[in-house]
Design brief:
Length: about 120
């Protein structure tokens, strides 16, 4: 199982970034895909998830600002982040959850820093 996240970086408050996560073909289509984040000194928290047929769900802190999407033929997950705030600063992780196997897979994180 491979999950490779990319797209992080430094952005000013109010700016935008798009994260991508390339996944192994054998798991992507059957997984609930998600983004989680972890800020220094804090626990990992849910950002957003999306089912195999495209139904999204969001954490309260990002509703209305972030959009999760998936491209099943390309085995790629996306997170469009708009109106970024300093409190969005964290390492963002891609996750694949296979419900029938009750198995979670995590990729290496990508750092997002929101600062002026």
């Amino acid at each position: 199982v491979q999950l490779q996240a990319s797209g992080g970086g430094l952005v000013q408050p109010g700016g935008s970034l798009r994260l991508s996560c390339a996944a192994s073909a054998n798991i992507f289509s059957i997984s609930i895909m998600g983004w989680y984040r972890q800020a220094p000194g804090k626990e990992r928290e849910l950002v957003a998830t999306i089912t195999p047929n495209g139904r999204p769900a969001y954490g309260d802190s990002v509703k209305g600002r972030f959009t999760i999407s998936r491209d099943n033929p390309k085995n790629t997950l996306y997170l469009q982040m708009n109106s970024l705030k300093p409190e969005d600063t964290a390492v963002y992780y891609c996750n694949a959850y296979r419900p029938l196997l009750q198995m979670n897979s995590w990729g290496k994180g990508t750092q997002v820093t929101v600062s002026s």
